[in-house]
Amino acid sequence: MYYLPTSIIFILFAILTFIYTIKNREEKKNKGLFVNELLVGLLFFIAGALFPFLLQSHSISIPISHLNFMWLTTSLFLIIELTIWSFMILYGYLRHKKKNNLSPQEEYVQFCRTVKGNWNDELKNELGRKFLHIFTVIIIIFFWHIGSLLEDLGILGVFGLENYSFSFWMIITVGYAFVIMFQTADLIRLNYFYTLPKWAKIWYCSAMRERELDTFVASTPLVLSFVPFVFFPFPVFVSVALITTVADAIACLVGKKFGKKKFNPTSDKTIEGFIAGSFSTFLIVIFSFLIYYPLLPISLLKIIIMAAISSLIFFLTDKFIERISDNITNPFLVGFSMWIILII
């Protein structure tokens, strides 16, 4: 039952996200944000519901005492994080009440002006944003190889663990803490901005896109979309993560640097960017399955088919699905298509 605190926390965040979105549904519908925000809430619910089954998904022989320890550690980590947030929010509230120079509405309007003034759609700005996304996959690969090393040294075996259970425990704990941090900050920013810590305001001003001012930042759904793929073999999981972060970053950066031809006048996406993203998707799948071949030994032909279909889906998703964030559609469509090909 030590998994309950984490599951409850994520389901509560799902409820808070739904309440916020439905409460502001007219504004969200007018700005084309309603479906995306409902999906973010759904992803939180899925993450909470799946948490009790993630750690043992590849290691059914883990003793329950070990699972309890891992569940408890993750839960305590999130509880400590939320406790720190509570103190920061309280401090922000008391500080604003004492200062009281601007009303909460005026302060947020001023913040929006700052973000709009700071933001420009140039390569340098995108590099910083995309690095944050790529950092998530760096964490995944880092913990996987730490787990592999500890397993090879026999250290994990002493504790009755192996690479999958240990690595995914670390990845899940860090990933869950990451999304709780961002969603807490976003819900505060959108509802009680004046209580937001100063460091968070500075970060938002430096990294936030203008179009994110009235909604959640893209990093949250990006990480949450990886959760269902913990059940899949690691080559699929890491391919999904790399495509969602690296291939998307390459498409964006190539489009901004070299893009000249747009698919249509209303879009800022270019043909050059689409080609770069699709080609990098193809290479990512090929190399991921070859590098981690011992974990999932399948034929080269099947790997090439998966790479080609993933590349096509990446292209079609970016081209035709505009209302839903590609940080949600890309991992789900690409990941499940790879899994279907695997089981055929």
Compact description:
By secondary structure, this protein is mainly alpha-helical. It is built from 14 helices and no strands. The chain is globular.
Protein model, in words:
The chain folds into two domains: 1-229, no CATH class; 232-344, no CATH class. It has 344 residues and is mainly alpha-helical. Helix content is 76%, strand content 0%. The protein has helices at 4-23, 25-30, 34-54, 64-99, 104-118, 123-152, 155-158, 163-191, 198-207, 219-224, 234-258, 271-291, 300-320, 326-343.
Relevant terms:
344 residues, 14 helices, mainly alpha, 2 domains, 76% helix
Based on secondary structure, the structural category is mainly alpha
**Approximate strand percentage:** under 5%
In sequence order, what are the helices and strands, one letter per element? HHHHHHHHHHHHHH
What is the count of structural domains? 2
Distance between the termini: 37 Å
The shape is: globular
The count of DSSP E runs of length 2 or more, i.e. the number of strands, is 0
Using only C-alpha atoms, the radius of gyration works out to: 21 Å
Biggest sheet statistics: none
How much helix is in the residues?
over 70%
**Average pLDDT for all residues:** 89
Low-confidence stretches: none
Number of helices: 14
